[in-house]
Amino acid sequence: PRLFNRQHDRCYCSRCYDQDWPDTIEKDGPKPYVIPRGWVRFGLAMPPQAQVLGVFDKWCVSFHGTKHYVAKSIIETGDLLMPGDTLPDGSKLESSNCAGRTDRVNYTSPTINYAGLAFYARPSSCPSPPQMFQVVLQCRQKPDTFRVQAETMNFRKAWKTGERDLCPHVNISEVEWVTQARKSVIPYGILVRTFKPETPPDKFFKSPVDPKQFW
C-alpha cells in the first residue's frame, strides 16, 4: 500500500517558514497547533476512516518522538505501538523513556519542543554526508481519549525550569498526553531534523536525564 502522501509535505525551516509567521494556529483542531519550527514533514497516507471521522477538523495535533526504526514500524502498521506489542519483524516493543514504568499506554505531546528532545527522538547517524537525524511523528489525536499531565522525567527539578521555559505555548504541567485508547492517534506526517554531529541543535534538544552515552 502507498505509505506517503505528498499533500501533507511541509518545511518549517527558517527559510521556508518565516520567523514573523505565527508559532501557533488556533483553529486547526480543538487545541492550538504548535508549529514544529526547524523540522521538515514528509506526509503520510492516512486510513480511509480518517476522512470519515473528520480528523483534520475535529482531532488535535500531537507529536510522538521515537527511534527511527520504531517510527518505521508505526508507519507500516498505521498505529502507534504500545509496550509489549509485536513489531513487523516479530520482536516485542519494550518500554523506554518511562522512568521504569511498563504501562501499556501511548505518550504524545502538544509541542515538538518536548517530543523532539533527544531523550525521546533518539538521534541516529547516516554516512553520506556524515550527519545526524531525528524523527518525530506528527499525529491527529481524538479529543477526550487522553489524560493531560506534567512531564514525568523530573526535568523541572533538574533544570529548575519555569512553567513555560520548555515551550512558550504549552505549560510544562500540560506537556504530556497519555492514552490507552487504540486507534485514537493517527500519524499523518514524519518530521525529520538533521544536524552535523559536532553542532547539535542549541535549543529543545538536550535534557537533564539524557544517558551519558549520548554525548
Describe this structure in words.
The protein is of the alpha+beta class and 215 residues long. It contains five helices and eleven strands. Strands 1, 4, 5, 7, 8 and 11 form a six-stranded antiparallel β-sheet that branches. It has a three-stranded antiparallel β-sheet with strand order 6-10-9, with no helix packed on it. A hairpin with a 4-residue loop joins β7 and β8. The radius of gyration is 17 Å and the shape is globular.
Characteristic key phrases:
215 residues; six-stranded antiparallel sheet; alpha+beta; three-stranded antiparallel sheet
Low-pLDDT regions: none
Shape: globular
Secondary structural class: alpha+beta
- Overall mean pLDDT: 86
Instruction: Please work out how many helical segments DSSP would assign.
Output: 5
Strand fraction band? 15-25%
Distance between the termini: 39 Å
Computed over alpha carbons, the radius of gyration is 17 Å
The H-and-E topology, N to C, reads as EEEEHHEHEHEEEHEE
Count every beta strand, where a strand is a DSSP E run of 2 or more residues: 11
Could you describe the largest sheet, including whether it forms a barrel?
6 strands, antiparallel
Q: Can I get a quick summary?
A:
This protein has about 220 residues and is an alpha+beta fold.
Q: How does the SSE layout of this entry go?
A:
Elements: E1 10-11, E2 24-25, E3 33-34, E4 40-43, H1 48-53, H2 55-58, E5 60-66, H3 68-77, E6 106-108, H4 112-115, E7 124-126, E8 131-141, E9 147-149, H5 155-159, E10 176-179, E11 185-195
Antiparallel strand pairs: 1-4, 2-3, 4-11, 5-8, 6-10, 7-8, 8-11, 9-10
